[in-house]
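Fold this complex.
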Amino acid sequence: MQANQRGKIVEIHGGQGLINRMMSMGIYKGKEITKLSQFALRGPVAIKVNRTVLALGYGMASKIILEIE
Amino acid sequence: MIKKILLVGNPNVGKSVIFSRLTGVQVIVSNYPGTTIEISRGYLKIDEEKLEVVDLPGAYSLEPTSKAEEVAVTLLNQNKKEDILILNIVDATNLERNLFLTLQLIEEGFSVIVCLNMCDDAFHHGIDIDVERLEKLLGVPVVSTCAVTGKGIKLLIERLKEAKAVKRPRLSHQERWREIGKIVEAVQSLKHRHHTLREALEDASLKPLSGLIIALIVVYLSFKFVRFLGEFIISRISEPIFFNFYQPVIEHLSMFLGKKGFIHHLLIGELIQGRVDFKQSLGVLTTAPFIEFAMVLPYLISFYFILGILEDIGYLPRLAMLLDNILHRFGLHGYAIIPVLLGFGCNVPGILSTRILESKRERFIASVIISIGIPCVPLQAMIFGLLGRFSGVYVGGVYLVLLCVVIVLGFILNRLLKGYSPELLLEIPPYRLPPIIMLLKKLFFRIKGFLIEAAPIVLLGVLIINLLLYFGLFEFITRLFSLIIKDLFGLPKEAVIALAIGFLRKDVAVGMLLPLSLSAKQLFIATTLLALYFPCLATFMVLFKELGLKYLLKAILIMFLVSLIVGTLLNYLVLR
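Structure:
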């Protein structure tokens, strides 16, 4: 997925702990998010959920499966 | 019967600002999630009734994921539901995400009043929220405020008592988000606006290339400005005061005391060429105040001023994201940069704020790195003052050695310690322009804290040195350690005194090195060792409190090993 692309979350691969944690921050199945940037060498990813900008670790970000519109 | 008001909300929504407004108690506020790591308490008087107000660390939900969140949730569950009133602070620019916690609180059956904060920010973003409608849909009172300017606070206090518990079915997380979607749809309307300069900057600092350039500029300018402002205060304000006004007073006192004797030794110290020398006399009334007020305080003021600006603008989380990759090699994630930066001011708040990190492993690594490799402002000010006279190369050398130690130590700790490091998951706040009055308040608050805690210890330190010197008790200690000090580190055995005093306060310890007339190389090694070898008493206590005895002992072992190795290496590698 490229920077500045928008997509809808299809699935979050991960344990219940991770799903719950993301859930409480507004990242959940069916939600639309925008990717803002991505740092090199498996660096963190910045995403925008509603008006909130979040920084996610690479591993965490790669667990979020999106459907690009 | 309500006894307590608890301030609950997501991180970085302004709970602490509201807390200060309600109670008049000043607490540190910044523009990044996780500023509040300890619980603050204050009192609010409503109709002749005194209510306790408690400021909790921010939480996204009632299921805690970090130590700071845990503290908040534990406190919520400690009290009987009838006894407490929840003041739920909600960020109006982020209504949707914030309502998740709000609904959880209501579902749990707490008495809740919602404070819709940052309404001015929301207005600027073109967000309009129908407060009355929101109140109806939630079933609890909603008051909109702008805590930074104080708008709406009066109304909030008037309506506090209207907080109530309403019955709402317990929803699953998924259902709750659906419900929130409906509520937000009904109350919030957005106006479309063009991209502003501020938003362009916000985006730029999150992109790899432009982010790196911005970071370099910010760090460079901050460092330059801290030095500039610090030196300005020293040369224009503090030194003139000491030399022009204080020196004559002290000289008179010295004369009055007959220039020698026990009392003279304690208060004034030794005269250098017949005169009081603030740097070398080592008296409770001479060197002690000079170190604190003329050498350390100016840098402390300028450091905290710049740090405050960076904090309140909201730059630090962006720096965290930029450094995430590097810090992962040390078993930390990017957010650990915040405790480290705070540690540069003073190790104590730095180590305390490691609570924003999730795992014990991370907190241990960060605490060890801070207490070993991060010199606090007082120590740095003294290093600049003393070593800077020889050459800037030596000053740079100290930083280089510390940086190398941090890198090597980080790698090793990450390899040796069991477990893995959790990944970064961090909210990046928007840039905000802090009102100058808030900045100055925070600066004043921090400096006051420093003076209250540091000044007595500095006096005590100098007093102890004086007594030991007077009664010749140092002989014993110096002989004990002279082997290590002389043969391994190449320092004169008297330097033991300074290293011992370093346990009390590092700035005084560096001051102790001055009368020894060390060579540049010796001074370089001694100050580096002072930074490395052992935390000062206050840091020691906070390490014990935060890590527990077992981890503290581990940390101490690491410190001794590191200083032994580095001290010896420097002595044999650095030639001049």
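Residues 1 and 39 of chain A are 13 Å apart (CA to CA).
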